[in-house]
Each structure stands twice: as C-alpha cells, then as structure tokens.
Predict the 3D structure of the following.
Amino acid sequence: MTPKMEEFIARFRPETPCLLFDLDLLADNYRRLAAALPMAEIYYAVKANPAAPVLQTLATLGSNFDAASLAEIDRCLAAGADASRIAFGNTIKKQSDIAAAFALGIRVFTFDCAEELEKLAIAAPGASVICRIFVDNDGARWPLGAKFGCAAGAASDLLVKAQGSGLAPLGVAFHVGSQQTDLASWDMAIGQAAMIFTELRERGIELATLNIGGGVPVAYAQEVPEEAAAITAIQQSLARHFGNRMPAIMAEPGRCLAATAGMVRSEVVLATQRDGQDVRWVYLDIGKFGGLAETIDEAIQYPIVTERDGGNPVPTVLAGPTCDGADVLYQIAGYQLPAELGAGDWVEFRHAGAYTASYSSVGFNGFGPLKEYYL
Ligand SMILES: *Cc1c(COP(=O)(O)O)cnc(C)c1O
C-alpha cells in the first residue's frame, strides 16, 4: 500500500474488485534492477502486465521489451518503444505474425526447434535469432515446464542451421521458471549456455548475446531468497562460466518489476462456517477467473491484508464468487483470517501487480474483467 493508493481509495472509493498500481513503484523497481545488473539490457516481459501506462513508464526509463505476440508488439510500439528495442521472444509464432513483426521492424526472434527456424527463414530473412534451451525449472513456484526449449546438446546444430538458412545466429536463451526460489538453477543454466558458446566458437560462430530470461522471485507470503541475492548469484555464475569472454546480456524480468507495484482490492461477499468443517469459508468478489489465476495449485500465495486485521485469526478457506467448484483460491496454504471478517469488509492482495489483470476473464458468470487504476 502506497500513499498514492491510500489517497485514491479515500477519494474515489473504487468499486471492487480492482487493481491499484503505483507507477512510481514500478519505476523504482526498474531503476533498482537496472543498477544491480549494469551489464544487462533489460527486456521487460510484457505479459506480466501489458497495460499502456506500465509500458509507457518503462519505455521512458529506457527499457527494452520482450513481446510474445503481435498484439504485445503493437502495444510496445504504441507506448513509444522503437522496434529496435523489442524482441519477439515467444518460441511459438504463426508465420504470418513473424512476417508482420518483421515488417514492423522487429529484428530479434527466439526459436527452439528446426520447424520454427524454417518459418523464420522465410518470414524474417536475415533476422537475428536466439536459440532457447530447456533448463531445469525445479524450485520455481510457477514453472514453465517442458513446454519450451531444445535440449542443450541440440542448440549448436540449430544455430549453425540458422546461419545456413540466411538468419543471423545471435545467442542462447533460457528461463529458469518464474518465481524461482533455488538460486543454483541460474548457475546450471548459465553453465549449459556457456558450453554452447564454446561449441559454436569451435565451429566458427561467435555468439554475441546470452538471454537469461526472468524468474527473479518476489517476496509474497512465503519466504524466498531476496532479489539482491538472486542478482548476485546470477552475476557470480556469469563470471564463473564466461570469465573475460562475457557476451552481451539480455534479462527479461516481468514479475519482479510489476508485482510489488500493484495490489488487488476486493470485498467479502459472504463469510460462513460450513457444517461439519472446522474452517471458515470466505467468499470474495474476485477469484481465479477474476485475475487471481496464479492461485492455481496455490502456487502464488499473496500477502493478504483485511479490514478486520487485529481480530481473532481462524483457519480460513478463500474462494471466488463464481459458481465453479475450481474457483477456490486457498484451501491448503494455511491462511488464517480474522473471525470478525464479514460481508462488505475489504480484503487486499498485496504484490498483485503482475500476472493478474491480463489474466482476468472477459465475463465468466457475468463477472467483468478486473478494473485497473494506474496511479
Ligand atoms: C514470462 C517470461 C518472462 C518473465 O518471467 P518472470 O518470472 O515474470 O520474470 C521472461 N521471459 C520469457 C520468455 C517469458 O515467457
């Protein structure tokens, strides 16, 4: 909660559920990260929060952008970012979208298999390509799993093939998984990437860039390593594995830039003790479909603040307002909320500026998308 948010709530009493987002905090987060990673170019992962004020703020601060779709590219351009500052980072792209992005001036694309390379060679001739490798996502609260990345052993052949098909092999990318809590995962990934740089050097190709993805964790309700510790671990690994042959570094933070700048404000719709259960059920006006999708498997556990804090904490299940049985936020995470909490009271989800508003459904059960206020 920031003074700007407090003032906004006091003055306008916004209808809930809504996201309040303090752009000053976003700018602070960007400046802190950029200062901590002076050797890296920051490519903000647009999917974390693609709202125009967020992109404009970051564009003004000099950020680059990691876009996953043509629509995200358009948003970055509209926010004032030059095409040279935007990378098309999704490894899964329609050929028509590659062509459209290329026509807009996008020149850096990520791929992870020969079939995607074929599309790029046709639709983005001469463009720079980065090969994404699969790395272990253990320790990530929101893993990206097996969906992306070639085997590290396949990367050099693919990058040689890229050159053979008229593309410019630029580098290697990985993502250790979002909300990564195990600092050793960066070391393993950077070590694997360094081996690919060596293999390609032996084959006559000097790669220029290592893209270290995102994954820097945010201090939600569960304990995680501090951001500064994660950055230090990354820097030490880069020095260990690349030494004085340091490539240009791209970093793609999403969560650690946007999350702490926002909070979701909601209201209790119903609170009741269910017969035969020793927990209280608190139903809010926001749930999984209203923007809190990262509560799937209770993966992301937001710090929760309520109007009745200071009362008598009791075991509580938190659920959304829809008629869907899956719309339960927290049942096993062990939240204890005040027994005094009742209908009409406000409940706030802190650090909810990333991966919330753009996840909210267009109107499941008649509940509209999350309202957003950028302050
Ligand atoms: C989602 C994503 C990111 C951002 O990850 P965070 O954990 O939010 O920092 C970065 N790069 C790629 C390719 C992504 O898909």
About this structure: Residues 274 and 280 are 7 Å apart (CA to CA). The chain has a mean pLDDT of 97. The pocket of pyridoxal-5'-phosphate is lined by residues 45, 47-48, 66, 89, 175, 178, 213-216, 252-256 (CB under 6 Å). The domain at 23-259 is CATH 3.20.20.10 (TIM Barrel).
